[in-house]
Design brief:
Blueprint lengths: L31 E4 L4 E7 L9 E8 L4 E6 L12 E6 L7 E9 L8 E9 L4 E7 L5 E9 L3 E9 L7 E8 L4
Antiparallel strand pairs: 1-2, 2-3, 3-4, 5-6, 6-7, 7-8, 9-10, 10-11
Length: 180
Amino acid sequence: GDSWIEVVTGTIHPSLAPLALFEDEDARPPSAIAAGASTLAILFGTQPYYDSPFVDMHLAILDPSTGDAAIAAAAGMARRAANHDAAIAAGAPPWSDPEYGAAIASPSSEAIGAPRTLAFMRFSEGGAPIGGPIAVTSTGDSSLPSISWDGEAWGVVFAHAADDGAPPVVQFARVGCLAP
C-alpha cells in the first residue's frame, strides 16, 4: 500500500499540552507509567538530598480528559528506591473498580549496594492505597521489577540474588487478590 501522512491543524486538547507534574529540580524521569480505565498512573522519584543514589517514590494520577493531576507519596511503599526499581500496571478485578498494582524494590539502608527487598501494593484508580504493602521478597537482593494483570491476579517478574552471593536469577511471583 501507499504511505501517507495526514497533518491535522487546530486547537490542541488541554490534556495533550505539556503538564508539569512535579516542579522540583530534584525530580527524576518517570520510573513507570500505566494506563487505567480513565486515568494514567505515573511512578516517579525525587532526590531527597543532593547526590543521593536513591529517590523518594511518588504516585501521580492524571485524568487525560481534563489534564488534572493528583500527586502523593507512594503511600505505604518504599520511601527510598533506585528510580529504575519500580513498576506499575493497570488491572480490573471483576469484584472491584479498576485499580493499579505497583512493585518497588527498596534498599535495607541508604548504603551503596545495600540489598533491596520487593514490595507490592494496590492503589485505586484515583491513587488511594488499597490495603497495605505485601512483601514479595524479604531476603536477598531484588531489582528491576515488571508487573502485569492477567485477569485474575498480578504477576511480578524481577531479578533476585540470594544472600549467599549467587548471581541474580529471574523470578516470578503471582500476587492474588481475594474478592471481598
